[in-house]
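Quick log. Single chain, no ligands specified.
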Amino acid sequence: MKLKLRAGLAAVVYIALVTFGAANADTFDWSFSGANLSFDFIFGSGTLDAVAIGGGTYRVDAITGSVSSSCELGSNPCAPHLQNIIGLLNAGQTYAGVPVAGDNLVFPSGTPEFLSQDVSGGIEFAVDGCFFPECFMRIDYNPGAGQYQVVVSNGGANGVDFTLTAASPVPGPIVGAGLPGLMLAGAGLLGWWRRKRNTRAAA
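-> predicted structure:
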């Protein structure tokens, strides 16, 4: 019985160890919205993973979320027709017959210019089920106009609102609170079980 109890306690301790995790400091929430004559409604949101490459600059390695470049059919007022992001596009590759221009660089500490201000800057990604068989979207910052803009395949929208914020981290374990407390509780349980066994033996 003693062996079984100790094995069970070891299993609980092992589970506690493998389930503790640390927050990812390089995950950001992003969103944009706007409207113009070319598109009824422009909207998008999601998360992106980025790696610091120095000088306050981050390179986006992955992006998830959904975007819209139109309203749902028959909706009034406009409800965004959301499409999922397939994945990040890399600078230099050709997608939908067009060379990718985005450099996928962001500056989270910048105010308010979070995106690369180069003429070939911005985050560029593929979108599932757009109005073309292969649709891409790019979010960039136009320093001349002093505003963000969205390019959707062969169209676009100027003056969109874009935000980029650090994602809320998942709370990590408090040092000294998790595993030590579990071990003390296990030791107390083991002591109680021994006392109960000795009392029965004496009776």
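The longest strand covers residues 42-54.
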